[in-house]
Amino acid sequence: MSATTTVTEAVAITADNVATLFPDVDISLARSILPSSNDSSVRAGGDLDGYDEEQVRLMEEVCIVLDNDDRPIGSASKKACHLMTNISRGLLHRAFSVFLFDSQNRLLLQQRAAEKITFPDLWTNTCCSHPLGIAGETGAELSAAVEGVKRAAVRKLDQELGIKAEQVPLDKFKFLTRIHYLAPSDGKWGEHESERPFPLCFP
């Protein structure tokens, strides 16, 4: 498999055309709850047949869809956002990475589970995931987006590593920059993200 992927740029993805180009995208970010586990848009098509049930459930989470200027223009399931057929046409979503350092400046790394649908078994930073298209984790302006991503990072650090919210106050997250990247995991799945890295000192 080639390590490079071409993104079709003939049509710029905007708030006006995203739902037409990608029918799985919901153009309302007012969604306050996650879709049910019976969401047919996630389960349909057989793309998730044979995968771990918990990983399939996580594919139902709602990612924030962006235009190329990092503005939220909709939301879509994690499945829709990570299919290479959509990525190759330019579908972009918001993400984050946490780099957790201890008092001796040692970085905590995590090995992704073998059951993961994207990038199984690979070593990565402390925690990388997505803010969701839900209240408290969205934001159009940079400052609001950063705050939303911090809240998402606290949620995922607890979920993945058992680090509780009181151990990682929001003001301890230091926003570095935004990174726009695309990486195929295999022929079916991949990432196309606008990511916010956060270093965090954990005494």
What does this structure look like?
The protein has 203 residues and is an alpha+beta fold. It has one domain (18-201): Alpha-Beta Complex (Nucleoside Triphosphate Pyrophosphohydrolase), CATH 3.90.79.10. 21% of the residues lie in helices and 23% in strands. The strands form 2 sheets. Strands 1, 2, 3, 6, 7 and 8 form a 6-stranded mixed sheet that branches. Strands 4-5 form a two-stranded antiparallel sheet. Strand 1 (62-66) and strand 2 (72-77) form a beta hairpin. It is globular. The termini are far apart. The model is unreliable at 30-40 (pLDDT under 50).
Kindly list the characteristics that best describe this protein:
203 residues, two-stranded antiparallel ribbon, 6 helices, Nucleoside Triphosphate Pyrophosphohydrolase, alpha+beta, globular, six-stranded mixed sheet
